[in-house]
Amino acid sequence: MTSRSGGRRGRATESDARDCRNRIVRKLLAFATLLFGSRALGAEAALVHDIAPPHPRYAQLTQMAAEVARRTQGSLTIAINPGGKVLYPGQASLDAVRSGTVPLTFVNSAFLQSVDPDLGFLNLPFTITDSLMARPGVAERVLALVRGYVERKGLRVLAVMRGADTIVIFKSRKVRIPEDMKGLRIRVAGPGVYQDIVRSLGAEPVVFPAIEMGAALARGAMDGIITSPGGWGKNVQDAPSASLVPGMLFYTYFLLADRAWFDALPAPEQNALAGAARAAVTDKWDEMRADDARLVADLVSGGASYAVVPDDAVPAWKDRTSAVTRAFEAAHPEAMRKLRALVDIQ
Prior knowledge:
This protein is an alpha/beta fold. It has two domains: 1-36; 42-343, D-Maltodextrin-Binding Protein, domain 2 (3-Layer(aba) Sandwich). Helix content is 48%, strand content 17%. The protein contains 13 helices and eleven strands. The strands form two sheets. The protein has a six-stranded mixed β-sheet, with helices on both faces. A five-stranded mixed β-sheet has the order 2-1-3-10-4, sandwiched between helices. α2 (57-72) links the parallel β1 and β2 (76-80). The radius of gyration is 26 Å and the shape is globular. Mean pLDDT is 89; it is low at 1-41.
């Protein structure tokens, strides 16, 4: 009798102990959630940009997001343009990060000139090219240069993305020599050096975000558009004729983070985000180049017209735009010294 009673008391004691432990665990979890917010359950970071699907670069963004989730086992996830809309086009996306509204953006390098005017070297004519970026170590050297400018302004740079060797698209026009651009209103993605390049050709630059440029062309706000093959794909019905001057105006995008937000991440998540950005974006330059070539071929097979300025005509474009580089070097000699050290890598 005594033995049975002792057994019941023993089982009751064990049950009470389990209940007590469970209550303590629940209280600790509730406290952790209150104290650390979403980090207790996994954090979601908004990434804003103006590269809307079906642009081929969108694939790299989704690959990066998937890789971040995989590397962190879901403790950090990336929400690309939450709500599925481009809410912060161009400069607005950079401003959103700098104000702390969102933690991440992929932004066209034209807008980095608002962070530091020296960064205009990224946009100079015939400077950043596929052949340069194909050299071993150059992408990391470019990132290091940019890092030296943006980190003191509260930003982290995590990746460089091949935007495009841009094309000029028209309703029916083609260009072969610089004089073919004279007097035309030409859309550019952002201010600064992009505008200077267009002006050097005797044309008038018009800054329009990508999401608005098709409608602007249709209503006559511009004669032509400088854009990527992906941008052409979205607007090919209104502008079925494209011309390429190889290397003249090259788009690059940079993945920027709010430095305070990034530095507050646990080290494993910092490493996962930086590693995923490098693997899915920076290291995929050749893949992006091939994507653009396939897209152009598909558009041409569907009836669009595409012309590449021949090699013997390119020197005239280089000569016409060289004044842009000379003027920039006069205003930013130290930036150009750093750039020349990079370009001269063998």
